[in-house]
Amino acid sequence: MTDSINGFWVALERDTRVDDAEPLLAAVRQLKGVADVRANVVDSGSYIAAMQAQTELRSKVAAFLGDLFK
């Protein structure tokens, strides 16, 4: 027996203005089986999470490069 899927999360590669994202939202709404599509508005929490992830990645890259050139 296989699992059933009731939805998907889709992440855009960068924050996009609402008017620029509208064609993409309209296209997804036209796909067979799609009941609803909603945009997720950027807020301070998502900005903070992105900056924390970016800082962590920079730190790991710096540590890797530091180890590489010891």
Core attributes:
single chain, 70 residues, mainly alpha, 0% strand, elongated
Distance between the first and last residues' Cα? 53 Å
Question: What is the helical fraction, as a range of percent?
Answer: 40-55%
Name the shape in a single word: elongated
**Number of alpha- plus pi-helical segments:** 2
Rg on CA atoms, Å: 19 Å
> Roughly what fraction of the amino acids lie in strands?
under 5%
Q: Biggest sheet, open or closed, and with what strands and sense?
A: none
Order of helices and strands: HH
Low-confidence stretches: none
Question: What structural class do helix, strand and pairing data support?
Answer: mainly alpha
Average pLDDT rating: 91
Give the beta-strand count: 0
